[in-house]
Amino acid sequence: MLFISDVDISNKRVILRCDFNVPIENEKVMDNTKIKNSVKTIKYLLDNNNSVVLMSHLGRIKNKEDKEKYTLKPVITLLEELLNKNIQFASSPVGMKTLAKVKKLKKGELLLIENTRYCDFPTELESKNDIELSRYWSKFGDVFVVDAFGSLHRTHASVTGISDFLPTYFGFLVKEELDNLSLVTKNISHPFGIFMGGAKVDDKLKYIKNLLTRCDYLLVGGGIANSFLYASGYDVGDSLKTESEEVLSELKVLLNKYKEKIVLPIDFVIDNQKILDLNIKSIAKYLRYMRKCKTIFINGTCGVFEDEKYAKGTKNFLEGIASINAIKIAGGGDAINAINKFNLGHTFTFLSSGGGASLEYISSLSLEAISYILSKKAK
Predict the structure, then answer these.
(1) How far is CA 141 from each of CA 138, 148, 178, 254, rounded to the nearest angstrom?
(2) What are the strands of the beta sheet with 192-196, ordered from one edge?
(3) What CATH architecture applies to the domain 179-364?
(4) Whole-angstrom distance, CA of residue 207 vs CA of residue 203
(5) Do domains 4-170 and 179-364 have the same CATH topology?
(6) For residues 263 and 293, is the Cβ–Cβ distance under 8 A?
(7) What is the rounded radius of gyration, in angstroms, for the C-alpha atoms of the chain?
(8) Is the backbone peptide bond immediately before 167 cis, with ω within 30 degrees of 0?
(9) What is the pLDDT of residues 60-116, one digit of tens each?
């Protein structure tokens, strides 16, 4: 696995796949963490006399309205401030005009390409790793650099497809992520406690199975907790839960097999027959388990923390985690949003920029995109 510091990349036009999948409201970026994470690699490439073509996805594009909603244009203002440099913009990820802009790019200049997932409507060319789209995008540069850690659990055209046609290397963010996540993948200090929240247990079941073989305690929140409770025979009302009989059957097996590891909540904040947060006794119970641990991994939240009425469980849980002397890593998405909301980032050993990616990596010890790229390079 080669990083940009391992090779000579200079006087080239570089395609840099970043992760600018950030929350945007009223054309303003609400959390700049992911954009700031890209700066080190961008500056390095510019300092080595390259021109840089920036690419990223944003949201999911299922119709024309989504294209208006999920434009990368608001990213430019923030990125220009961070780099103190003008950035050009291509308003479409494809087309002759875009290619012409790319070809005119001079050394030391930056061009941001519009949301790669525009190519997912009406046909999912980006998400299905379409070879012709990948071939077209490969014309944007001489070298391909992947620094979008948060997307490395996906084999999309802009993440892996371009690597079929160009020399491919990894950026500094990917290196930082893998180095820090080694704390929960190699030589783990036990007891190892994991908290996993989130809406759909179906999407995370494969991760849960893998992690249960390696952790000492698995604490659950959100829809995942509701699904485990439902599988145990509890009435969870209209709460978010899986309806899949196959998944429920698998959860029952896990509950029986790992009854000493899986820790379930015992009281809740309920509104309209829906569990929306964990209550005082559950948080106290969870913190008792976490205080035993030398290594802690957090993915997701205790409830609907975005609403102040249902944020108390997540806030109290994270504040309790903050006081524990252990290796503490949080994996992207809602976990990071909540940690930032409550100003607790400084109490963690590392905050990963990728929710799904970090979860896949610590559970399977690999990432689909990295495996794809390395397999291609080996041939």
Answers:
(1) 6, 17, 26, 48
(2) 262-263, 217-220, 192-196, 295-299, 327-331, 350-352
(3) 3-Layer(aba) Sandwich (3.40)
(4) 9
(5) yes
(6) no
(7) 22
(8) no
(9) 999 999 999 999 999 999 999 999 999 999 999 999 999 999 999 999 999 999 999
